[in-house]
Design brief:
Blueprint (H helix, E strand, L loop, with lengths): L2 E6 L8 E7 L2 E5 L4 H12 L2 E2 L2 E7 L5 E6 L3 E2 L3 H9 L2 E3 L7 E3 L9 E3 L7
Parallel strand pairs: 5-8
Antiparallel strand pairs: 1-2, 2-3, 4-7, 5-6, 6-10, 9-10
Length: about 120
């Protein structure tokens, strides 16, 4: 019996409604208007990843928290681990945009970087 999943492609603004049929080891993607949509559907089913944005505490800055993001996508199943690792991070101002705030976030191999500059007050 085939397992059918409905997905919305997020590769471009069209937002194609994808229909993924999983039958044994074979996956069929339908509904995409471009090849990128097919790849997105396969990736989403087999190894979903996400970019993560959050904040960390900052000492001496003009704001109490610094917005941060992952430099690249992380496995969807590791989001909570990365968030927990960011919960204990505290940086000292000044910070420049793009500065590495956390290397190898939760063992994912992905850096967390500053999303904006933070001047010292």
């Amino acid at each position: 019996m085939a397992d059918v999943k409905e997905l919305t492609c997020i590769v471009c603004p069209i937002g194609c409604r994808l229909r993924a049929t999983v039958e044994g080891d074979e996956i069929t993607i339908e509904g995409n208007t471009c090849a990128r949509g097919k790849k997105y559907g396969l990736d989403e089913l087999c190894s979903p990843v996400r970019m993560l944005t959050s904040t960390v505490k900052v000492d001496g800055g003009f704001l109490p928290r610094l917005p941060v993001r992952t430099r690249g996508p992380i496995p969807k199943g590791r989001i909570e681990d990365v968030l927990l690792s960011l919960k204990v991070v505290k940086v000292e101002a000044p910070v420049i945009m793009g500065q590495v705030i956390l290397e190898d976030a939760a063992g994912t191999g992905v850096e967390v970087i500053a999303s904006r500059p933070m001047d010292r007050i």
